[in-house]
Amino acid sequence: MQPINPKVTNTTCPYCGVGCGVSVTKEGSTGVGITGDASHPANRGNLCLKGQTLGETVSLEGRLLYPSVYGERCSWDTATSHIADRFKQTIEQHGPDSVAFYVSGQLLTEDYYVVNKFVKGYLGTANIDTNSRLCMASSVAGHKRAFGSDTVPGCYEDLEQADLIVLVGSNLAWCHPVLFNRITAARNDNKHLRVINIDPRRTATAELSDEHLPIHPDSDTALFAGLLRWLAMHGYADQHFIQTATGGLEEVLSSIGELDIKTVAEHTGLDDTTIHAFYQKFADTRRVVTVYSQGVNQSVGGTDKVNAIINCHLYTGRIGKPGCGPFSVTGQPNAMGGRETGGLANTLTCHMELADASHRRTVQDYWKSPYIADKPGLTAVDLFNAIHQGQVKALWIMATNPLVSLPDSNFVKEALRRCDFVVQSDVVATNDTSAFAHVRLPAQAWGEKDGTVTNSERCISRQRRFLSPPGETRADWWAVAQVADKLGFAGAFAYTAPHEIFAEYARLSGLDNNGSRDFDISACENITAADYRNLTPFYWPATQKVQSTPIRFFANGAFYTKDRRAQFVVTLPVEQTPKNDLTLKLNSGRARDQWHTMTRSGLAHTLAKHTAEPYVQINPADAGRLQLNTADLVRVSSEEGHCVVRVVVTDSIAEGAAFIPMHWCHPFASDGKINSLTQRVTDPVSKQPALKRANVSISALSMAHYGFAVSSQSLATDQFDYFSKAKCEGGWRYEFALYQSIDIREAATKLIKHHGPDCVEYTAGNGRYSHFSFTGTTLNTALVIDTKPVICARNWLSAQLVETHPAGNRHQLLAAIKPHSKEDIGELICNCMAVGSRQIEAAITEHGCTSVQEIGNETLAGTNCGSCRSDLAAILKRLTMEQVA
Ligand code: SF4
Questions:
Q1: Prediction pTM value
Q2: How many Å apart are CA 321 and CA 303, to the nearest integer?
Q3: How confident is the model at residue 717 (pLDDT cuts 50, 70, 90)?
Q4: How far is the CA of 44 from the centre of ligand 1 (A)?
Q5: pLDDT at 757
Q6: Angle of CA points 712, 713, 719, to nearest 5°
Q7: DSSP 3-state assignment of 686?
Q8: According to a count of CB atoms within 10 Å of the terminal CB, is the N or C end of the chain lower?
């Protein structure tokens, strides 16, 4: 433990599971400066653009600052008394399983520990599940089936020490950019390192990999089960490891006897040569890491996919050694902390098991609690089914927006509407879920919270407070303790600071352990406030002292099953859903620069420059058949519902498939929720929803008017049939459309009537209408309306809110396109270095750049966070092919 620089707060990024260290300095009275923490082992000073722009997200815009009951502001005492009364009444009338909690991978470990203790030890139910169920429950289940514990065997350094990295169902370049950049750097140092990307989509990650295997959706199990068979047939077993450390191989091998390369080709859509080359490469490379995330986990066969991958690593003994292993990367900043504290409905804290009587006894004795849950609670999808059916009558939601993130949003909405009593702890004043909350509790946001998180490689880091908590916001653990107090459990929840919670948790992790459980941080059991304040990142296990270097598990066996042997698991290929010629198979994922439901990333104007609107990507063949063009507005429909998005035609999507990003919801779009389309279907083992399984149809929308606006103030979006809204410097930018033909001038005047009287308008011969309002030399609102999708320089126009516009110099604005000059950089590609498409094209065609590296040397594009390197690769590929043609 080292003292920290008092002028700099070292904390952790609140976005993805890479868990980068962030150094924060205060700037002026309200601003903060953000840099990567060079001492943090996850990122060594690097940050992706999301991390770099965290300073744009810490304003109080849209924050929930005070508690309320039934919409009336009240004191914390009133709110928590009301919650305690309603939970008590509900339990007395309907039993403990009539109440539930739905929490989040955004919670800190201390929050997670306290709420789990309260629910599983004091309310007498295990009805607490987390939104991490939606992203990595299949990995948890797969680990437990194979290893007997939810253990991530390796660490990030393995990616730098490998000679082959297989990325499965993972767009690592966009979803875990700093980790991907570590791989990119390793490739520069190790010319033998090869990266193979297995994904139905040709993503940014595929563009930057050595090879892309575009398999059919959900055919991963067949590919890896076929690999195991091939390895067995060609003598690639690590016999010593198999005989001394594993069990169950014979049954698995006999289950895949028919899975020859030809059959694998039928499942995956890959040709025999490609499959054979992949199998041979895997077999010939000693140091192999297989990284996987949501493309594997979010499936009806997610757990089998995980075990099919693990089986191959066990068979070749490639686990727990430098540069080897299966590696699940998590989506959320504290998904791992949730797993460790028992945040899932089927687990107990500190990686103990609800089904194990000795574990239950250990925990209950330690907590001195009146109860201990002895059967699994309801998992996310089943929980909302039970709410819909009236079995669960009181629900407390923390730090998540289930109406957007759970499958079948319309069903979830109805479930929430039917629920007798809903409590919501959140940082935002309004989101889709908030309309259904009876009690609202103001939570602390990043920068205000104080606690710990665990990243994908088992590294525990402090998330430190550097801003005073605003209004009456409080820590989530504190809110739970208040309710526990009012239910008569005060003594068990008498925490005054997070280090007390962490110490209690650390002590429990070592209790009755003696190496029988993987998770042990008992080195911290006596941590003081000062030690906690100065705690530097460390890896678990940590029994004697905290470790600043990662420890690998299982190189020599010693798994956590009863016989301490890993288990090979029989896996079944996923059955494809029947699809007719009129429907497309829907895939989902992240946009490059947004995060989850945009409550934080949506406040960063820099991030909106990359993608400011929800969209559906479709293949050119499907676009032709459906008579759709890029920029058309379409309705995407499934049996569950519909959404309205913009079309992007691209050959990165296979024919018959569609892709929609997961982020857009209210207040950022009128109808952008992808989960309006998805089904409540789950993996039978992990209960993780299959969020990439829906069949959808797409139909063009006939709009009378399309519009684009930038404004220093919020526009009334209820005037539009379709809208999306994104932050820009000095205000907001809007896309909108109207079904009915209207008097455009009248509508424009109505829309921007609150702004200054100094207006300029222009109607072109083709009916395109432009309207600008000013105060002095400052642009208040710019509005462009057309009868077809608006073409204009959006990023340039958005930047004009913070420019000066003398009265005699406004003709450029009226054209609403950027004047052609040497500053006309085209579409912004590299956000960090402000490099546009025209500059990159010039670097290739005029300056002879032939690689992403050379483009970076010439223009600086891609030399900072690296998120745009795939875009550079795509431009390079396009222009090179054009030149060849
Ligand atoms: Fe944050 Fe993830 Fe980016 Fe690191 S890679 S800065 S943790 S979003």
A1: 0.92
A2: 24
A3: confident
A4: 12
A5: 65
A6: 125
A7: coil
A8: C
